[in-house]
Amino acid sequence: MTNSEQYYRNIEYREKNIHTYTMLLDADYDMEINHFKDDLNDDEALTLDATRYGNVSRFVNHRCGDPNLLLRPVQIDTRDTHYYHVAFFTARDIAKKEELTWDYNINFDDKHEVKGFRCLCGSSLCRDKKNKFQKKG
């Protein structure tokens, strides 16, 4: 769905006290030129909503700045740049039983009416300045 549609869906979820699992897919990434750009608007940028249905990625948690996984859009059997799969790759060696994390790239200072969540990642690089649970140093 588009980011605009997701905005209104988040308002509906909030009114019903439903926790959301949404992810902005391609607001910054251009598959054609294989780098980020800033010229998509909310009616073009696609968002994934896994609130009711999802896959194993629902069990990968957020961590600001220093996650152990990277997310990349991957095209398989199509040249349509708006149809792709989301793939996770390791950013470093991952220890046995270590929590899997990736950076959702959320701007916690954004004045947007609907907030996704309060960050509790514990990273020294945490962007949620209101978070009292950040590790110091």
UniProtKB/TrEMBL annotation:
Please report a single Pfam family linked to this protein.
Answer: SET
Q: By what name is this protein known?
A: SET domain-containing protein
Q: Which organism is it from?
A: Picea sitchensis
The residues covered by the SET domain are 3-105
Going by the entry's taxonomy, the superkingdom of the source organism is recorded as: Eukaryota
